[in-house]
């Protein structure tokens, strides 16, 4: 369930005019920006952007970039992008971050549907004039390169069929790969990058039944290099992406100094999809409401905007 609260009917022309007025004079009327854009779904935001350009001959996103600053500007910018374009931007930032950003590449590749991932790859190509897989391959090596390139180029079957015998065989292969630190990584990569998510869930369940612990726990115990960390992230995202995102949010706020980039990424990416479900998991795990935790960690217009996307008017 989404946290975004958007009106059923709206006037993109009136919104465009109100935003234009908010940019006039000394300083920006951030309150108006938040009140409008924090309550519009992706279709509505694109309509506003289109009307704004027709009315004022300038790109609304570029104007927002020039009017806003810091984490507030970054969050509004990413919110305003179409989802595939946003994923392309997030992937590019992650690639530039090197090993610190590999989990974001995995996240994008494993949480999105096959069609959404294809759209993100097209958006990446359009925006950066290079393919996503090309940039991933250029900046990685060895088993990690094989895994990440395989994940971003994957086009998984989306059906519900399960082959129980295959789940048994491939759970054993994964166990051998994890148990022997120099095991059959090529086969593990093949399984993780080609099988449907439904089949992989059956394989992970069989792994737990046969080996007495979840595959993610075993990997977490041995996550000593970038490849195994990426493998762990891939399995978590495929297994239960909502629990994965809850942990991203928890980690973003439990460190000394909030990881605003991670917080923004999850909120703007999931506010129209399943952020309410993620927030419920967060409360069960931490006994604190997500919006209350966020309110303590960040401040200013950035705080007001993020809380608005979380469905809490401020």
UniProtKB/TrEMBL annotation:
Ca(2+) 3 binds at residue 295. The keyword Transcription regulation does not apply. Ca(2+) 1 binds at residues 23, 25, 27, 67. GO terms for cellular component: cytoplasm; plasma membrane. GO terms for biological process: response to cold; response to heat; response to salt stress; response to water deprivation. Keywords: Annexin, Calcium, Calcium/phospholipid-binding, Metal-binding, Repeat. Ca(2+) 2 binds at residues 255, 257, 297. A pair of annexin repeats may form one binding site for calcium and phospholipid. This is Annexin.
């Amino acid at each position: 369930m989404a946290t975004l609260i958007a009106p059923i009917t709206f006037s993109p022309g009136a919104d465009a005019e109100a935003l234009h007025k908010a940019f006039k004079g000394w300083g920006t009327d951030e309150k108006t920006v938040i009140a409008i854009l924090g309550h519009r779904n992706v279709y509505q935001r694109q309509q506003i952007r289109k009307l704004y350009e027709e009315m004022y001959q300038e790109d609304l996103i570029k104007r927002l970039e020039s009017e806003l600053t810091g984490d507030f500007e970054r969050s509004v910018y990413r919110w305003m992008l179409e989802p595939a374009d946003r994923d392309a931007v997030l992937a590019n930032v992650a690639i530039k971050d090197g090993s610190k950003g590999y989990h974001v590449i995995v996240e994008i590749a494993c949480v999105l549907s096959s069609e959404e991932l294809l759209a993100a790859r097209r958006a990446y190509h359009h925006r950066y004039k290079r393919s996503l897989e090309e940039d991933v391959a250029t900046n990685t090596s060895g088993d990690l390169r094989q895994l990440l390139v395989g994940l971003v180029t994957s086009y998984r079957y989306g059906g519900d069929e399960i082959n129980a015998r295959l789940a048994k065989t491939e759970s054993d292969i994964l166990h051998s790969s994890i148990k022997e630190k120099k095991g059959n990584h090529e086969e593990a990569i093949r399984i993780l990058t080609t099988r449907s998510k439904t089949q992989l869930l059956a394989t992970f369940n069989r792994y737990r039944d046969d080996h007495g612990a979840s595959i993610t726990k075993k990997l977490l115990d041995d996550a000593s290099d970038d490849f195994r960390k990426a493998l762990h992230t891939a399995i978590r995202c495929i297994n239960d992406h909502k629990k994965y995102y809850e942990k991203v949010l928890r980690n973003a706020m439990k460190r000394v100094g909030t990881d605003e980039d991670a917080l923004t990424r999850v909120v703007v990416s999931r506010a129209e999809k399943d952020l309410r479900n993620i927030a419920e998991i967060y409360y069960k795990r931490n006994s604190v409401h997500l919006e209350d935790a966020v309110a303590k960690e960040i401040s200013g217009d950035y705080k007001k905007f993020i809380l608005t996307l979380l469905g809490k008017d401020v």
